[in-house]
Amino acid sequence: MDAKADILSMFQEAGLEDYSETFQRMIKPSIRLITERESEKKIAIGQTKLGGQPDLPANIEWPYWKEYPMSFIAQINLQEMPNIQTDNDIHPTRGIIYFFYTAYPEAMYEEVDFDNNPETSKVLFYDGEINNLVRTQPPKELSKELQFNSTRVTPRLEWTIPDSDSFEVYEVLGLSKNDEEKYWRVFQENFSNKYIEGYTSEFHVGMNRLFGYHDPVQGEYKGEGWRLLLQIDSEDSTNMDWDDTGRVYFWIKDFDLKNLQFDGVTTIREGA
After folding, report:
1. Which domains does the chain have, with CATH numbers?
2. pTM higher than 0.90 for the full model?
3. What is the mean pLDDT of residues 121-138?
4. Out of the domains of life, which is the source (predicted)?
5. 101 near 120, Cβ under 8 Å?
């Protein structure tokens, strides 16, 4: 039995067979990004990584928000990622996506226009020759503690459905109260144990994820027409800590992803 059929059978056995058609469309592949601390020198130019220093085209300037230089979060070389194309969903398979975020505490907590402001993060896309990339030093004024450890990334296919604690379950699926409880049990007791590595661990396990559904800390849902582009967790390997083991989510509109337009990406941070 393939993964999608197996997941559908979990819902059917729980008495949710009336939603089978909806669930069939709902199940999405994602790419889990497993990190391991690695010296910058051992990571090739253009290779996927979290933290460290970005490999940028020479003409790209380091992004700022107001007077704050952004922290480099990740570069994802899409050609290194598993192919997760489906009949109903198309993902880009070429180029490099770069992620930056304003991580200064005084910006995040004191600037009144920070939250839900698309200008506090920057996502860049490059689809040229690797030999045109330069490993780029951050600005001198970027605080050392906001320059994250370089990590090698191992990508892994991981199937996702909306988390039982996500508002997506209530806003999109339209479940009755009784069926919401059934969905919760399927997610918590069956699906997460089998398909989400580390979900049930008593210790914090980093859940960095490209595409698919997000793993919410507070249940926030960006809304219809948006999708998860990248989820970044707090973890020791990168030395990232978002609001006490929280997560940062980069959201993109479906239309923009299809057309490789990343200027409208919005970032949400959720703390534990």
Report:
1. 3-270 (2.30.320.10)
2. yes
3. 97
4. Bacteria
5. yes
